[in-house]
Amino acid sequence: MLKFLCFLIFLIPLCLFSNCWWLICSLLFAVSFIYFFSFPYFFCWSNLGSLFGCDLISYGLILLSLWICVLMILASESILRSGYFPGFFVFVVLFLTIMLYCTFSSVGLLSFYVFFESSLIPTLFLILGWGYQPERVQAGIYLLFYTLLASLPLLVGILFVYNSFGSLCLYLLCNDGFAGGGLFYVCMVFAFLVKMPMFMVHLWLPKAHVEAPVSGSMILAGVLLKLGGYGLLRVFPVLFKFGFSFGYIWVALSLVGGLFVSLFCMRQTDLKSLIAYSSVAHMSMVIGGIMTLSYWGVCSSFALMVAHGLCSSGLFCLSNISYERFGSRSLLISKGLINLMPSMTMWWFLLSSCNMAAPPSLNLLGEIGLLTSLVSWSWCLMLVLILLSFFSAAYTLYLYSYSQHGAVYSGLYSCSLGYVREFLLLFLHWFPLNLIILKVDVTVFWV
């Protein structure tokens, strides 16, 4: 694990040179492919050291982090063209990549907590430094205080775990003879539920997405929301007994909240806001699947986390492409894209169909597994799940039809074919999303 970390750290001096943007991007592509072939075939902890290690859950999310961070640099060429501190931007992206790599490969709860919180700093820099509007300061404050407020109880809970077990190693934690109460359970899970985010503590996410640059939206939707699900999967060996007692509260709250958020999506006129709210709706099903504590629920939640990371990041890239042409994210203005960019309409269709869990995307596998696990956990959830699936398709069709059809409002009648870089960027989101399902027996159901 240390060789990949050293590779990422030694990329940082290249940020000092003005013409190393594409060199860093190429080297990050290289390290992503090298890491891809270091697959842990034994389905348990491997490459263990004093601080870092890897199992299948870590492997999938580290690979997703490396991939999304490469695509962030590829999507942000406008920063290179404008000359608005491109070297510092690449440094922030590399620092964020290192923090995410350390978070997902930590084998101790305390080091996991430190890196979990450290990933907030470069995200805040991305929003405040390269955001679009003056409201980005308010969005940064929302992001900072929502996550910090919920994280201090988690630190207290981790220290309590150390006092009880004498160890914080993730692969040594168990629930045998552990004495803790409901307050301890809430302290341990609440920080991760805010990060995902769960309904009622989700208000920071749409604000952060709307004000963030395309790179900030990509990393928020692609990886940072998955930190919450990963943390829940890691701390549940300690919380198994409490999970069976209190899990129904989170399942009910997340699924009903996901239904309400799906209705919010139907009345959004901002492209990025609509995609951000759809992320909350998808993550509500992930929370429900994890809280069932069933094998199907955990495996399917992991599958949907990976699928949503690629799909939602691709949709944010598409919204940024239309924003660069129209200068607006409003669906009332940036409509009729099929007239202006007919070649881009195919990518809108492909990624929108993945967002509504159409085959052969990995989203379909994740949602089928989650529906199965939740209905087997309680058949009373069937009505909520039917409505959630229906409105998921409804707001995705609303997004596609309102953005692609209709008369072009701004008077632009010429065609824009798009750049090769943009087509490559979208292909690198869509292709893995539909390719992973071919080896899903290895990558998901051995978690």
Automatic annotation (TrEMBL):
Residues 1-103 form the NADH:ubiquinone oxidoreductase chain 4 N-terminal domain. Belongs to the complex I subunit 4 family. One of its GO terms (cellular component) is mitochondrial membrane. The gene is nad4. Its main location: mitochondrion. It is a multi-pass membrane protein. It catalyses: a ubiquinone + NADH + 5 H(+)(in) = a ubiquinol + NAD(+) + 4 H(+)(out). It is found in: Mitochondrion membrane. Residues 109-391 form the NADH:quinone oxidoreductase/Mrp antiporter transmembrane domain. It comes from Humutermes krishnai. One of its GO terms (biological process) is electron transport coupled proton transport. This is NADH-ubiquinone oxidoreductase chain 4. Pfam families: Oxidored_q5_N (PF01059), Proton_antipo_M (PF00361).
